[in-house]
Amino acid sequence: MMLIKKSEQKxxxxxxxxxxxxxxxxxxTLLGISxxxxxxxxxxVATNSQLSSLLFQAADKGMTDFQNAIRNNxxxxxxxxxxMKSDGLISALKGRDVAYCLTPTASASLGxxxxxxxxxASASFLNARQITMTQVNYQRRRKSEYDASAGMDSGTGNTPxxxxxxxxxxxxxxxxxxxxxxxxxxxxxxxxxxxxxxxLLSDDALNASExxxxxxxxDKGAVFTTHQDEFEVGFQF
Length: 237
Fold this sequence. Notes:
Layout: H1 2-71, H2 80-83, E1 98-102, E2 112-114, E3 133-142, H3 143-146, E4 154-156, E5 159-161, E6 163-178, H4 182-190, H5 194-197, H6 213-220, E7 222-234
Antiparallel strand pairs: 1-2, 1-3, 3-6, 4-5, 6-7
Helix pairs in contact: 4-6
């Protein structure tokens, strides 16, 4: 009888140990899954932060390079006045936006190519890896048109200096990311997408009722960043 009792006690001890091991295994597994999920979340956050930083820098580069191109317009006697002439970089006074694509890898003058960027053209990307492209759009309007409360143009004597407002928008896009197709991104940048044409033209900062490039890219699920700034430019008659 004593032997039988000891054998039964021994079997009970083995069963309890098995249950304890299983519980520990479940806890360790859950901890491992939790750590893996935290690692994936951290990786996603880090990737998004890196992409945001890259897009921000690309859009900022577009704004900076466009300003530099205005200052360096012309081959001799380069100045903002040269850029504002009929054949200058910012000659257009009215109408839809004028677009330039930032093309540092191409041989374009001033690092800009007239017209919208094209997701199918390697030169439209900022580098050979073809990840990011930047498009700069501008509108030039008389200050009196832009702001009805604006005072008279500045200047002295018989040569007053009319003041224009230059509205510059720099849009940096990663076409291969997001839910927007390459053709859709092209349509938004060119202002030809159905979303854009339903409200007319392209990125018009003076008419908030019209859909903009930013609105179009947002609606289509593209990955992008937009910078916008306004400048006063003046010239003598």
